[in-house]
Amino acid sequence: MSEVPIPPLSAAEVLGLTTPRDNAHYEALGRFIAAFASAESILHVIARKLSGLSEERARVIFGGLRLSDVTDRIRHFLNLDKGAADETTLADISDIEACLDQLGQIATRRHNIVHRGATYFGGAFIVSNSMIAKTIASIETEIVSETALREMAQDCSRIFLRLILISGLTIKNDYWQTLLRQQPWLYKPPPPKPQNPKRRGTPESRKPPPDASQG
Asked: What does the pLDDT read at residue 215?
């Protein structure tokens, strides 16, 4: 009995979970994850620079820290430096803070995609915690479009370029730094969903019904 050849497709395509139309979305997802990692890594460089410690000591302190922890340390350093900062340093501080704010917005979306999973359906990714939520009431679902993925990836690339100029790892170029600072962020996080307050009955509705046996 001859073996049936398996077409050169990915496992997901063989199982019918993806189609060629998904390629652009998965490509955008991959580029976003890669760009986010670069933006996250440059924050470690900024933290080591602002600490004033030697490279070896700073790596011991900041190596392996989560993004939120590195961000907190950087904000503390910036607050310490503001008092004695000149105009150029203040511009750098403002630029770093803007990058931290934007990356924080993007990090929330990235965390949900990576830890909750993304399912392609109807031209976009559906991200939901329905499989891992502690209660049905805490289930959250969001739609992540290809456009949003590309915008977040471009913003992460801009964050990397802005901060690498400040870090001193490359020659500072006032033209490019000025140009980057003038560029608005592309990604805008979706507005928070309004929470429906739990309905509470009126005092009359909470009263027990009259006893039918009494009349």
From this structure: 45
